[in-house]
Each structure stands twice: as structure tokens, then as C-alpha cells.
Amino acid sequence: MPASTPSHRPDAPVRSEDAPLDEQAHVRQRLARIVSGSDFPALSQQIADTISALDDNASSMQRLTSVVLREYSLTLSVVRIANSAHYRRADRQIQSVTRAMVLLGARTVRQLASSLLLFENYRKKSAGLKELMLLSLLTANHAREVAIKLGVSDPEEAHLCGMCRNLGEVLIACHFPVDYARILTLVRDRTHHEASATIAVLGFRYEDLGEEMCRYWGMPDTVVQSARARSTRAATQTGAITAFAHELTSVMYRRDADAGDARKDLDAVIAKFAPRVRLNRAQVGEVVALALDETHDLFVTAGIRVDALRMRQLAEAACTALGVSALDTAGWDEAEAAADALELSPLREQLRQELSSKVDPSSECDLGQILLLALEGALRGAPYDRVVACVLSPDRTRLRARSGLGSGVESLLAQFDFPMTTQGGPLPAALLQGKPLTVPGDRAMNTLEQRLATKIGIAQMSVFPITVHGQIVGCLYGDRGALDPVIDAAATAHVEQLTALVVEAIEARRNRPAPQLITQTSQARSSGSEPELTPTELTELSAESKAALVMRLLKGETLVVVAGSSGVPAVTLEVWRTEFLAGAMARLSDTTLAT
Questions:
Q1: Could you say which residues of the chain have pLDDT below 50?
Q2: Per CATH, which fold does 361-522 belong to?
Q3: Are 246 and 166 in contact (CB under 8 A)?
Q4: In the CATH scheme, what is the code of domain 535-593?
Q5: What is the pLDDT of residue 367?
């Protein structure tokens, strides 16, 4: 019966008698009902944002940074992975997501982000789903550690495949809990194996729905194929690793068996996958221990402390299957104590140091990355929901948003385009005052500020001017939708220090005029070529602005200098100069002027 028929309850089981005849129809029906749910589009959009960010260019990295910073556990995971032995290239610890992402690359972060977005979304739904997501995360970490041991070049792809391997069961448990309870009952009563129970109740296997959802999200083909990877039939090495990781989780943590049976079951899994996953029992033990550590660290750093006891239960189950007396979990107590003692001030200091280390041009960090580091430092170190970098247009008549981070920042960027006058809006007015402003902290909001706050739905906002050699070139902006917590003096002092470091970075690169540097780097291309204004920005330049640039050429400045300081391509400047002179000659040749 179609999902839209009123008499069909969302949690009613699909009749099993016709399931073998129309399996795909049942899968599509369930998928349609899931994606039409009220809470599902937001997750889909986040997944789409991460999957679409395929490249290491500026726009991809900015979209990914914004997605990563929305989830605290994801933020910490990206930083932790960048500091792991597999990726780390220097002795110095990385504290910034922005720098971590530059090190890891968009592809790696995309896959890690997709994995943890799934984890964060579903573990919050219910206690039962939290357990399922815990097992999915263990499978993902098993897959990642196996991939590293086997020398696979992209272990985060294996992590994403592992997270998606059990996606079908997670979807049914979340969106069709009555059907899921029926399946569990059939398995518990030993009248069915899991596969036959799901077919009897749903008309398909869990893997069928997981694969279809991966396709819906536009996941890479390797992930789609791994969603149903089984045994040694997997066509790829990643598929074999995913299947092994899935069965390893099952034999470790999902079976009620005595110690002898658990060890035999583990040996059977190792032997079954030996042709494709060549790991002995000792190496598998290392994989299990590392996966438990990684999972425990995520829970602790994300503040999911309710799972600490469960993690120790899992460690005991792993010991039983591995036939060892204990795993090394000594660091768990230390990690939990450190998490309890963590304060905001050390984090702020770390974020400032990370930005400070990139101020000097020898760091090879361009101003686009400098701005992202400053935005990240403001978002993580102060209670802002969103932060935006704004810059002046080339003719200095408008203030426009160039980049931003935080929840809903995309819509804010589209709205931030103000005339650079005292009546142009609260941001231009604050900039023209030449000092930082936080309202209502420093004073009550005025009419302009109230109007903007109502329009974009905020309760607090701050503006931090970026002033280079006495000339305003832009600002950092932050806002918050609620009055609690208050954006206090410590928070604003932190962002003022970040702003000062941005100014210092601009001045350190004074081989180009400071006002244009921010504009240029916001449009920088990954190819390394000279950054230029976009075609849209070129068409928006007024005739007066174009004439001013041509006059600089006529006064003796070279094409290279004017192009470098304005963001206008040299060939375009040459065309404008030719047209300017042609117009002047035509005007001088006008016979009506002869007299």
C-alpha cells in the first residue's frame, strides 16, 4: 500500500507475503517515507554539503569548515585525526580545524565528516539508537585501523564505509521502531536469523535500504558498494575491509556467547577473511584496542560521559573474545579527568597561537587561510552562533561579506552588502567609529541595530574593525540568537586579539596594498595563479572606479602593480585603457567642440 494512503501507519509492517516479488518497491517506499520526515532534510543537507566538497579549493574548504564546526565532536575528531601518527608531519600539535583540514585535505575531511554527522544525528534520538551508533562507530574505527595496518592510502574512506555498513538497521530502528521491535523478537525467539527476519517483516534486508540511502545522498561508489559488503565476495579491498570490520564488531559485541565460543567465533572470522585481510590474532587485537581508544576519546571529548561505563563493558567483552586478561585502558581515566578540567581560556590561547604562527608570509599561509583561522578562533573561543569576515569593495563604497562559519551562515552572507556610510547599516556605522562594538553589551541597541537584529533573528552582535595603516579594510562580525550566554569582555578581548593578528598578517604582506589583499585572497584559486575579482564583481564596478584605475595607469603605474592591487586582470585593464583613450579621442574630435 502506498505510503501516502491515510490508513497506512508509518510504523506498520509491510506485508511479507509479496516481499520476494517486489523487493525494490518496498525499499523505495520506506526510503520515501524516511526522507519526507520533518527532521530528515537537515541531515540530508549536511551530508550533501560534505559530499559535494570534493576539492581542496577555497570554497570547498570553507563549506567543509562550516559543517565541521557545527558539531563539537566532529571539530575535535578532525583535529585529533590530523595529529595522529598516520597524518602528522611535524612535532608541533595542531589545534585549529582550519589547519587540520589543510593538512588532511578536503577528501579525507569529507569522509570523516560524513561518518560523524551520521553518528551525531542518530545517537541523540534514543538510548537504543545510541547503542546502535556506538556499534557503527566501532565498526568504522575497526575499518580505519585495518586499512592503516594494510597500508591502504585512504583510511578515512574505510571509516565512512564502516559507518554506513549498518546504516539500514539504524534507519529502520529510528524511523520504524515497531517493525524493528518485531524483527528483534523474531531473532530473540530463535525462529529466524536476522536476514530472514528482516525479509519477513520489511520485505528486504537492512543492507538494501542502507545502499539505497547512500545512493540518495550521493555517496561515492565505494561507500554504496560497501553498504552491503559481505565476506570475501566483496569486489574491492575496501569492501573486504568493511565486511571484516562489520563481522568483527558482531563477534565481539553482539553475541551472547561464553568465552570459549567467543574465541572460536573470532578465529572463524579471521580465517574467513584471511585471503583479503591478512591479519593474525595479535594484529586484530591491536585493531580492537585502537578502535576502542578512538571511540572512547570521541565520547569523552564530546562530553558524552554517560557511555563511560558502557565502554568498559565493551572492553571486557573484547578481552573475552581475544583471550587476554585486560586491554590497556589506563589512559581512559586520564582523558576523562582532563576533559573535566578543560577550560575555555587554554583553548583560546591555543587558537591564538595557531593563528600567530601563520602571520609571517614564510608560513606559506595565504590571507584566505588567515581569515578562516581567525573566524574559527572566534567561533570556538567566543559564544557566537555565526562569524563573518566582511571587506570593502575595490572602490570602497560598499561593505560585503566574503566568508563565514557557523549555523545558517550561508543565508547571512547573501544579505550582508551595505553602503559604506553612517546610514548604511550597523556594520558600516560601527566601522566608521573605528573601534570594536558589542551590543547590547557595550550599550543598548539603536534603531539601525534593532532593525537588523529583527531581520536576521539575533539578540547579540559584535563588530571588530580591521584597520591597516589607519585605513579600514573590513571587519570581523559575530552574532548570537539568544541573550544567554552573554558575549562578555573576555570573549570580545579574545576576538580583538585575533583581529590584531589579521592586521599583522596583512601588514606583513605589504608588497601588495593592504585593502585589496583580503578581497584578493577571498577569491583565491587552488591552482596558485594570481587571485582575481570574479566576473560578477567586475561588472559591478562603477564607471568612476574603472576610470580611477585607468588614471593610475596613465600616471605611470604598471599593469602588474595596478592588477595586483585591484584584483582586475591585466588584460581587462588594458581593454579599459584602450576604451578610455578612444572615448577621449572621440570627444576631442567632436566638431561641436571646435569652437
A1: 1-21, 305-306, 340-341, 511-531, 591, 593-595
A2: Beta-Lactamase (3.30.450)
A3: yes
A4: 1.10.10
A5: 83
